[in-house]
Amino acid sequence: MSIIIAVDGTAASGKGTLAKRVARHFNFAHMDSGALYRLTALAVLDQNGDPSREADAVKGARTIDLARAGDPAIRSDKVGKASSQVAAIPAVRQALYAFQKSFLEHPPGNSLGAVMDGRDIGTVIAPNATAKLFVDAKPEVRARRRWLELKSLGIDRNEAELLAEIVARDHADRTRAVSPLKQAADASLLDTSALGIDAAFAAALALVEPKVTSALKASHRG
Ligand code: CDP
Known about the structure:
Blueprint: E1 3-9, H1 15-26, E2 29-32, H2 33-46, H3 54-62, H4 77-87, H5 90-105, E3 113-118, H6 121-125, E4 131-136, H7 139-152, H8 159-175, E5 188-191, H9 197-221
Parallel strand pairs: 1-3, 1-4, 2-3, 4-5
Helix pairs in contact: 1-9, 2-3, 2-4, 3-5, 4-8, 7-8
The structure holds cytidine-5'-diphosphate.
Cytidine-5'-diphosphate (CDP) binds near residues 16, 34, 84 and 173.
Protein backbone atom coordinates (compact mmCIF):
# COMPACT_ATOMS: atom_id res chain seq x y z
CA MET A 1 0.00 0.00 0.00
CA SER A 2 1.41 3.36 -0.99
CA ILE A 3 1.49 6.35 1.35
CA ILE A 4 -0.94 9.06 0.29
CA ILE A 5 -0.92 12.74 1.18
CA ALA A 6 -4.12 14.57 0.20
CA VAL A 7 -3.86 18.34 -0.22
CA ASP A 8 -7.21 20.01 -0.80
CA GLY A 9 -8.08 23.67 -0.72
CA THR A 10 -9.56 26.78 -2.22
CA ALA A 11 -8.61 28.35 -5.57
CA ALA A 12 -5.12 29.88 -5.66
CA SER A 13 -4.50 28.96 -2.02
CA GLY A 14 -1.02 27.72 -2.87
CA LYS A 15 -1.94 24.04 -2.48
CA GLY A 16 -0.23 23.08 -5.75
CA THR A 17 3.09 24.65 -4.83
CA LEU A 18 2.91 23.10 -1.38
CA ALA A 19 1.96 19.68 -2.70
CA LYS A 20 4.89 19.72 -5.13
CA ARG A 21 7.37 20.65 -2.40
CA VAL A 22 6.00 18.08 0.02
CA ALA A 23 6.30 15.42 -2.72
CA ARG A 24 9.89 16.42 -3.45
CA HIS A 25 10.75 16.31 0.25
CA PHE A 26 9.59 12.69 0.63
CA ASN A 27 10.59 11.65 -2.89
CA PHE A 28 6.93 10.87 -3.63
CA ALA A 29 5.08 11.25 -6.93
CA HIS A 30 2.87 14.33 -7.36
CA MET A 31 -0.35 14.90 -9.26
CA ASP A 32 -2.28 18.15 -9.66
CA SER A 33 -5.81 16.78 -10.08
CA GLY A 34 -7.04 20.28 -11.01
CA ALA A 35 -5.02 19.95 -14.21
CA LEU A 36 -7.27 17.02 -15.23
CA TYR A 37 -10.37 19.23 -14.95
CA ARG A 38 -8.57 22.09 -16.69
CA LEU A 39 -7.46 19.76 -19.53
CA THR A 40 -11.02 18.49 -19.80
CA ALA A 41 -12.26 22.09 -20.08
CA LEU A 42 -9.59 22.88 -22.66
CA ALA A 43 -10.60 19.87 -24.75
CA VAL A 44 -14.28 20.94 -24.62
CA LEU A 45 -13.46 24.53 -25.62
CA ASP A 46 -11.11 23.34 -28.41
CA GLN A 47 -13.94 21.16 -29.74
CA ASN A 48 -16.33 24.15 -29.61
CA GLY A 49 -18.38 22.32 -26.98
CA ASP A 50 -20.37 23.65 -24.02
CA PRO A 51 -18.59 22.92 -20.68
CA SER A 52 -21.90 22.72 -18.83
CA ARG A 53 -23.34 20.11 -21.25
CA GLU A 54 -22.78 16.56 -20.01
CA ALA A 55 -22.14 14.94 -23.41
CA ASP A 56 -19.57 17.58 -24.41
CA ALA A 57 -17.86 17.52 -21.01
CA VAL A 58 -17.62 13.72 -20.87
CA LYS A 59 -16.19 13.66 -24.39
CA GLY A 60 -13.64 16.24 -23.19
CA ALA A 61 -12.70 14.10 -20.16
CA ARG A 62 -12.17 11.09 -22.43
CA THR A 63 -9.97 13.00 -24.86
CA ILE A 64 -7.70 14.97 -22.52
CA ASP A 65 -4.18 15.48 -23.76
CA LEU A 66 -1.91 14.93 -20.73
CA ALA A 67 1.03 16.28 -22.72
CA ARG A 68 -0.57 19.71 -22.34
CA ALA A 69 -0.58 19.64 -18.50
CA GLY A 70 2.24 22.21 -18.48
CA ASP A 71 0.65 24.40 -21.16
CA PRO A 72 -0.03 27.95 -19.82
CA ALA A 73 -3.29 27.82 -21.85
CA ILE A 74 -4.89 25.70 -19.10
CA ARG A 75 -4.21 28.47 -16.53
CA SER A 76 -6.37 31.09 -18.27
CA ASP A 77 -9.45 32.39 -16.45
CA LYS A 78 -11.65 31.12 -19.27
CA VAL A 79 -10.38 27.57 -18.81
CA GLY A 80 -10.55 28.01 -15.00
CA LYS A 81 -14.23 28.88 -15.13
CA ALA A 82 -14.98 26.10 -17.61
CA SER A 83 -13.06 23.61 -15.44
CA SER A 84 -15.35 24.38 -12.53
CA GLN A 85 -18.36 23.78 -14.83
CA VAL A 86 -17.16 20.40 -16.11
CA ALA A 87 -16.14 19.45 -12.53
CA ALA A 88 -19.75 19.78 -11.36
CA ILE A 89 -20.87 17.00 -13.73
CA PRO A 90 -20.84 13.56 -12.00
CA ALA A 91 -20.05 11.64 -15.21
CA VAL A 92 -16.93 13.77 -15.72
CA ARG A 93 -15.72 13.07 -12.18
CA GLN A 94 -16.40 9.38 -12.75
CA ALA A 95 -14.42 9.41 -16.00
CA LEU A 96 -11.40 10.91 -14.19
CA TYR A 97 -11.72 8.77 -11.04
CA ALA A 98 -9.88 5.62 -12.16
CA PHE A 99 -6.93 7.61 -13.42
CA GLN A 100 -6.49 9.35 -10.07
CA LYS A 101 -6.97 6.12 -8.10
CA SER A 102 -4.42 4.19 -10.10
CA PHE A 103 -1.90 7.03 -9.75
CA LEU A 104 -2.29 6.87 -5.96
CA GLU A 105 -2.22 3.09 -5.75
CA HIS A 106 0.74 2.70 -8.11
CA PRO A 107 2.69 5.95 -7.99
CA PRO A 108 4.98 6.29 -11.03
CA GLY A 109 8.72 5.79 -10.67
CA ASN A 110 8.23 3.14 -7.97
CA SER A 111 7.74 5.90 -5.39
CA LEU A 112 6.67 4.75 -1.93
CA GLY A 113 3.96 7.38 -1.91
CA ALA A 114 2.05 10.08 -3.74
CA VAL A 115 0.85 13.60 -3.04
CA MET A 116 -2.29 14.72 -4.85
CA ASP A 117 -3.82 18.18 -4.68
CA GLY A 118 -7.38 19.15 -5.54
CA ARG A 119 -10.82 19.66 -4.00
CA ASP A 120 -12.04 16.17 -3.07
CA ILE A 121 -8.88 14.14 -2.56
CA GLY A 122 -9.27 13.72 1.21
CA THR A 123 -13.03 13.35 1.03
CA VAL A 124 -13.73 11.20 -2.06
CA ILE A 125 -10.64 10.06 -3.98
CA ALA A 126 -8.54 8.95 -0.99
CA PRO A 127 -10.65 9.03 2.20
CA ASN A 128 -8.08 6.75 3.89
CA ALA A 129 -5.09 8.94 3.02
CA THR A 130 -2.14 8.81 5.42
CA ALA A 131 -2.21 12.58 5.93
CA LYS A 132 -4.62 15.30 4.82
CA LEU A 133 -4.20 19.05 4.54
CA PHE A 134 -6.82 21.66 3.77
CA VAL A 135 -5.14 24.82 2.49
CA ASP A 136 -6.86 28.19 2.54
CA ALA A 137 -6.00 31.90 2.61
CA LYS A 138 -7.93 35.17 2.61
CA PRO A 139 -9.48 35.83 -0.83
CA GLU A 140 -7.50 39.08 -1.30
CA VAL A 141 -4.24 37.26 -0.64
CA ARG A 142 -5.19 34.53 -3.12
CA ALA A 143 -6.13 37.08 -5.80
CA ARG A 144 -2.72 38.71 -5.44
CA ARG A 145 -0.97 35.33 -5.75
CA ARG A 146 -2.96 34.43 -8.84
CA TRP A 147 -2.17 37.87 -10.33
CA LEU A 148 1.55 37.24 -9.78
CA GLU A 149 1.31 33.68 -11.14
CA LEU A 150 -0.42 34.86 -14.33
CA LYS A 151 2.03 37.73 -14.70
CA SER A 152 4.90 35.27 -14.61
CA LEU A 153 3.17 33.44 -17.46
CA GLY A 154 2.98 36.70 -19.43
CA ILE A 155 -0.74 37.23 -18.75
CA ASP A 156 -1.63 40.69 -17.40
CA ARG A 157 -4.94 40.72 -15.50
CA ASN A 158 -6.94 43.10 -13.35
CA GLU A 159 -6.58 42.04 -9.71
CA ALA A 160 -10.11 43.02 -8.68
CA GLU A 161 -11.53 40.88 -11.49
CA LEU A 162 -9.36 37.95 -10.42
CA LEU A 163 -10.67 38.34 -6.88
CA ALA A 164 -14.28 38.23 -8.12
CA GLU A 165 -13.53 35.12 -10.22
CA ILE A 166 -11.85 33.32 -7.33
CA VAL A 167 -14.76 34.04 -4.98
CA ALA A 168 -17.28 32.91 -7.62
CA ARG A 169 -15.38 29.70 -8.37
CA ASP A 170 -15.03 28.81 -4.67
CA HIS A 171 -18.74 29.36 -4.25
CA ALA A 172 -19.51 27.09 -7.22
CA ASP A 173 -17.07 24.44 -5.94
CA ARG A 174 -18.44 24.53 -2.37
CA THR A 175 -22.11 24.37 -3.32
CA ARG A 176 -22.15 21.75 -6.08
CA ALA A 177 -23.99 18.55 -5.34
CA VAL A 178 -21.20 16.15 -6.24
CA SER A 179 -17.81 16.08 -4.46
CA PRO A 180 -18.08 19.64 -3.15
CA LEU A 181 -15.02 21.48 -1.89
CA LYS A 182 -14.91 20.92 1.86
CA GLN A 183 -12.43 20.16 4.58
CA ALA A 184 -12.40 16.46 5.48
CA ALA A 185 -13.17 15.87 9.17
CA ASP A 186 -9.66 14.49 9.71
CA ALA A 187 -7.77 17.08 7.62
CA SER A 188 -5.50 19.69 9.20
CA LEU A 189 -6.34 23.27 8.26
CA LEU A 190 -3.43 25.34 7.00
CA ASP A 191 -4.16 29.04 6.56
CA THR A 192 -1.37 30.52 4.45
CA SER A 193 -2.66 34.15 4.47
CA ALA A 194 0.34 35.36 6.46
CA LEU A 195 2.83 32.76 5.27
CA GLY A 196 5.33 32.92 2.44
CA ILE A 197 6.15 29.76 0.48
CA ASP A 198 8.95 28.62 2.82
CA ALA A 199 6.92 29.22 5.99
CA ALA A 200 3.87 27.49 4.48
CA PHE A 201 6.03 24.52 3.51
CA ALA A 202 7.49 24.29 7.04
CA ALA A 203 3.99 24.42 8.53
CA ALA A 204 2.73 21.74 6.10
CA LEU A 205 5.65 19.49 6.89
CA ALA A 206 5.13 19.83 10.64
CA LEU A 207 1.56 18.61 10.13
CA VAL A 208 2.20 15.67 7.79
CA GLU A 209 5.69 14.43 8.65
CA PRO A 210 4.83 12.53 11.87
CA LYS A 211 2.07 10.62 10.06
CA VAL A 212 4.22 9.85 7.03
CA THR A 213 7.14 8.73 9.20
CA SER A 214 5.02 6.29 11.17
CA ALA A 215 3.43 4.93 7.97
CA LEU A 216 6.88 4.42 6.45
CA LYS A 217 8.02 2.57 9.59
CA ALA A 218 4.93 0.38 9.51
CA SER A 219 5.49 -0.43 5.83
CA HIS A 220 9.12 -1.43 6.54
CA ARG A 221 7.92 -3.77 9.26
CA GLY A 222 5.71 -5.15 6.49
O1 CDP B 1 -5.34 26.39 -9.44
P1 CDP B 1 -6.69 26.57 -8.81
O2 CDP B 1 -6.68 26.35 -7.35
O3 CDP B 1 -7.35 27.85 -9.20
O4 CDP B 1 -7.65 25.49 -9.45
P2 CDP B 1 -7.37 23.98 -9.85
O5 CDP B 1 -6.87 23.23 -8.67
O6 CDP B 1 -6.53 23.95 -11.07
O7 CDP B 1 -8.85 23.45 -10.18
C1 CDP B 1 -9.64 24.01 -11.19
C2 CDP B 1 -11.08 23.60 -10.97
O8 CDP B 1 -11.18 22.18 -11.13
C3 CDP B 1 -11.64 23.88 -9.57
O9 CDP B 1 -12.24 25.15 -9.46
C4 CDP B 1 -12.65 22.76 -9.37
O10 CDP B 1 -13.92 23.10 -9.85
C5 CDP B 1 -12.10 21.62 -10.20
N1 CDP B 1 -11.47 20.57 -9.40
C6 CDP B 1 -12.28 19.64 -8.79
O11 CDP B 1 -13.49 19.72 -8.88
N2 CDP B 1 -11.75 18.58 -8.11
C7 CDP B 1 -10.43 18.46 -7.99
N3 CDP B 1 -9.93 17.40 -7.32
C8 CDP B 1 -9.57 19.41 -8.55
C9 CDP B 1 -10.12 20.48 -9.26
